[in-house]
Amino acid sequence: xxxxxxxxxxxxxxxxxxxxxxxxxxxxxxxxxxxxxxxxxxxxxxxxxxxxxxxxxxxxxxxxxxxxxxxxxxxxxxxxxxxxxxxxxxxxxxxxxxxxxxxxxxxxxxxxxxxxxxxxxxxxxxxxxxxxxxxxxxxxxxxxxxxxxxxxxxxxxxxxxxxxxxxxxxxxxxxxxxxxxxxxxxxxxxxxxxxxxxxxxxxxxxxxx
Length: 209
What we know:
Layout: H1 5-27, H2 32-51, H3 60-87, H4 89-103, H5 108-136, H6 141-153, H7 162-182, H8 186-202
Helix pairs in contact: 1-2, 2-5, 3-4, 3-8, 5-6, 5-7, 5-8, 6-7, 7-8
């Protein structure tokens, strides 16, 4: 990526606007599944041409690894939920309810939006473009992941779910690390797909009474 004052200003504006837009989406939860797919289309159209070279064909072995990493992340998330349930039982029940009320799609259309638009747009924007910019400016790996994750999580602070903030921070670090290690956006994207598939559809977290 270029390292010019004009490009740096454009990148800064992109970050500020993105944080504001996603923060607004999390505040306006009534129209969450209207605004989120729409803005996702915009980011895919605008950002994908800039980072498409980072989508490299995966071998069968690499595909299986990406899937297993998604399963691993879900397993770690499940284990973390069990720990929270032990020490903060009532709080955890409340937060899980808020998490699913906010995020879980309720129609087939929303499920399609989530997997074909929302998740790809998140990886393209936050990992591919924003984290990729920090990497291109020769930031240390940890700093590149940290700055990108910070920006990724900022809008989540406007949500109603502290658990979502925590999940976003951990996810940003996990998927950011996958991208920086593999230099291939398919790894975090597929892992993200699998994680959401398990968490929101196949094996949602139980709220024990």
